[in-house]
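Archive transcription. Copying these from loose printouts into the bound notebook so they stop getting lost. Printout 1 of 2:
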Amino acid sequence: MTPRLPKILEHMAESRLGISCTVTAVEYFHATLKRVQFRGELGMETFVPGQEVKFRVSDDEYRHYTPTFFDLEKGIFDVLFYLQGNGPGSHWASTLEAGDTARMLRTGGKMRLATHNRYHFFFGDETSLGLFRCLKEAVHQKGHEYLGILELAEGSFGWPEKLDVSVDLVPRLHDERPAQEAIAYLNDLHGLLWKTWKKASFYLAGRAASIEAFREALVARGVSNDRISTHAYWSDGKKGQLINSRQ
């Protein structure tokens, strides 16, 4: 469901809680994959990997995003936008250029790194890249380990490498068998390897149907539900999808 607020309430929230930010850098990894860096007086004591920020993208709509990078001391953060061109969030992000201003609101986020666990397993797609890039950096800082599987469209297979996210890649099949290639990969993990990774913390984000299928496969292989975090960013047939955005 697309989040909407009456214009007067949105303006009140922005005027009281919004942080003015300026676009300081724009980088295209692909025509539909754009990194935007923002700078502002963030007024935050801490940033937790997986935490989200929120921007107004039209008069009465907003979108949530997971920064891929956050530097509180310098007051800068990066957001990775997947520009599919079929919604207000995508349109707004596609127009951002250096020197533009926007007001950011801090918010929570469903995905937080399970810092008590040494092992972390990512599953998602193009819309999960920003989140996984952020979590991956936190994993490395703690000296932990991660594995990942991304199901991608054919033209997106080079994206993870450009973002320095080391994961295995499988094709995304738009049919009645979502995540089947990723599940086959999962089922190839066995013996001592699976004994170790079965106890990992699992982070599933992206296509709703694929998340559900992959979660069911994990549970069938003995992974407890309390080790699985999910965040659906998009569903088949719904318009207005954008990377790391609640639609």
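Printout 2 of 2:
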Amino acid sequence: MATLIAPAFAQNTATPKIDARQERQEMRIEQGVNSGQLTAKETANLDKREAKIESDKMKAEADGKVTRKERVHLNRELDHTSNKIYRKKHNARTAG
């Protein structure tokens, strides 16, 4: 009986779109570091934002269900971070 409950539990907390967005944003940050578009300080700031999103996602999943309101909040955080990544990669600052 426990095996029937586990998949149902996993479905309620699944966040595949949010996970995919996080992965793409992390790749964008990594690309910016490799190309020199991001300074160490910019990278640290973006990594801190990514860690906050992950923490918020874990909190949302903790009760076994990610609500629509929690998904909206996470997507807004991801939108804001995505804009920050773009602005930091396209400003005049470059890594040494």
